[in-house]
Amino acid sequence: MPPLTAIERFFERLLERPSARLFRARLQPVQLQRRIERAMEAERLASADRTLVPNRFVVHLNPVDLDGFGEMTGSLASELADGALLFARSRHYTLVDRPRVDLVGDPTVERTDIRVIARFADPISGRVGAAAADDVGGAFGGGPSDTMVFTVPRPPAPRARLRVTVAGGAARNVDVDGTDLTIGRAADNDLVLADNRVSRHHGRLTGRRGTLVYVDLGSTNGSRVNGVQVGELVLGEGDRLELGDSVIVVEAAGDGP
């Protein structure tokens, strides 16, 4: 994180948050937008000919604050993503794909606080290369060259063997090859867990930049890795993923061919 960004965040926490908690001021969309912009700036990667910035933002809010947006919650994430794109265009930053914003209710976040996790994500299927660039230009006017969208070289897909024990039952092995693998109680998941404490669509395993990543999909009872609750985490050999009363252990992990 750049030093100036760290200083800015320090004074923001020192001055803004205590007063906001004191008066219980409602969060405004513009506050979320500014935090997303700061996260984009903090995580940018500069090279000789371009500055690459994150294109996926997960905004963690206290559930009370999230509920405070009421009926606009459904469209807010899309509006914030549009704002992130405009911000990137105005600074001639490079995006792997059109920005996406997810809003998450997180009880570990204090009231009126905002926690943004920014990351680089692979292009959405069907929207890579020129197609994605045309969409960016068409949505906001101007040519696609205003904000470059390009395809990042893809590392080998991670492969892993998982040992799955459902609610204290018999264990079984599951091999993953880096493609998305959805996990949950519903029958339409790739890995179905017959566990009443597991949500219908609980989480997803996916390959990202040569790593195996677990993403919680807003489950009711949450996800824990090695005893710690997580929303998204890169998994390695020996990690223990707990979903409800079921356990998934990464027994072996490595790159694909």
Give the SSE layout.
Elements: H1 3-23, H2 29-42, E1 45-46, E2 51-52, E3 56-61, H3 63-67, H4 73-90, E4 100-105, E5 114-119, H5 129-140, E6 158-165, E7 171-176, E8 181-184, E9 191-192, E10 203-208, E11 211-216, E12 223-225, E13 228-230, E14 232-235, E15 240-243, E16 246-255
Helix pairs in contact: 2-4
Model description:
The protein is 27% helix and 30% strand. By secondary structure, it is an alpha+beta fold. The chain has helices spanning 3-23, 29-42, 63-67, 73-90, 129-140; strands spanning 45-46, 51-52, 56-61, 100-105, 114-119, 158-165, 171-176, 181-184, 191-192, 203-208, 211-216, 223-225, 228-230, 232-235, 240-243, 246-255. It is built from five helices and 16 strands. A hairpin with a 2-residue loop joins strand 15 (240-243) and strand 16. It is globular and about 55 Å long.
Low-confidence stretches: 14-23, 126-153
In round numbers, the mean pLDDT is 78
Largest sheet entry: 6 strands, antiparallel
What is the count of helical runs?
Answer: 5
Can you give the helix content as a percent range?
A: 25-40%
Which structural category do the helix and sheet elements fall into? alpha+beta
Written as H for each helix and E for each strand, in order along the chain, the element string is HHEEEHHEEHEEEEEEEEEEE
Spatial order of the strands forming the largest sheet:
7-6-16-15-12-13
The radius of gyration is 20 Å
